[in-house]
Amino acid sequence: MNKNVKVTLPKIPAVLEEGSFRDIYSDEDFSLMNSEITGETIEDIELDQAIVSKVVFRNVTLTNAMLPRVDLTDVIFDNCNLSNVNFNEGIIHRVKFIDCKLMGTDFTEANLGNVLFENSRAHFSSYVDTRLKQVEFTSTSLQNANYHGCQFTKTAFVQCDVNEANFVQTRLNGVDISTCHFERIHVDFETLEGCVVSQEQAIGFAKLLGLNVADE
Predict the structure, then answer these.
(1) Nearest CA to 186 among 169, 210, 201?
(2) Nearest-angstrom CA–CA distance, 132 and 126
(3) How far, in Å, CA of 33 to CA of 54, rounded?
(4) Which class for 127: exposed (0-12), middle (13-18), buried (19 or more C-beta within 10 A)?
(5) Which Gene3D superfamilies match (predicted)?
(6) 158, 175 contact by CB (below 8 A)
(7) How far is residue 21's CA from residue 212's CA, in Å, rounded to a whole number?
(8) Which CATH code fits 17-208?
(9) Buried (b) or exposed (e) across 9-23, using 16+ Cβ within 10 A?
(10) Beta-sheet strand order (sheet of 71-78)
(11) What three-state secondary structure class fits 205?
């Protein structure tokens, strides 16, 4: 955990009812609340503005899921496969993704607040024009992730693989990537100012600027 980013974790009731994701169709507002869902595979879902609150998903797979403008509040995804799920323009608040597959998952133009990504694989995930506030990515593989045009507020990357990630047109002031691994990332040097980097990373960026770094 990054000491400068305090993520408020999901507020989950001590007792939840066992449920199914398909229960969401029983509500005229397409809402799912106060449930624990385990071991399901849900295919070919397309729901606009669905509401999911105080729900724990364990070992759940969503396939061909289109959930634009979804409202996720106080939700835990534990060991779930959410690859290629569409969360475009969603409101995602107090949500935890732990040990999840998020390959190609699309958060474009979403609002993420108090969200934790932990020990997950999120290659090619997209956060284009997304607002992230109080968000932490820890021990998560973000190879080729796309953060183009993001707004970061108190966002941290802790021991993540961000190789080939795209941060073009994204201000990185105050964003800490010092513990992350990458051979190459895509940034604008004018928006890199204030980014927290390690000494080794600083030397790498200096070389990209054409500076000759003298050996001590």
Answers:
(1) 169
(2) 12
(3) 6
(4) buried
(5) E3 ubiquitin-protein ligase SopA (2.160.20.80)
(6) no
(7) 57
(8) 2.160.20.80
(9) ebebeeeeeebebee
(10) 17-18, 31-38, 51-58, 71-78, 91-98, 111-118, 131-138, 151-158
(11) helix
- Token pair listed for 15: 């007792």
Nearest Cα to Cα of residue 139 among 108, 116, 172, 167: 116
Rounded Cα distance between 76 and 212, Å, is 47
Q: Which residues pair with 112 in a beta bridge?
A: 92, 132
pLDDT tens digits, the chain, 216 residues: what are they? 666 788 999 999 999 999 999 999 988 889 999 999 999 999 989 999 999 999 999 999 998 899 999 999 999 999 999 999 999 999 999 999 999 999 999 999 999 999 999 999 999 999 999 999 999 999 999 999 999 999 999 999 999 999 999 999 999 999 999 999 998 889 888 888 888 999 888 877 776 666 555 565
The secondary structure of residue 58, as a DSSP letter, is E
Is the separation of the CB atoms in 171 and 191 below 8 Å? yes
pTM for this entry: 0.92
Q: What are the residue ranges of helices labelled H in 101-184?
A: none
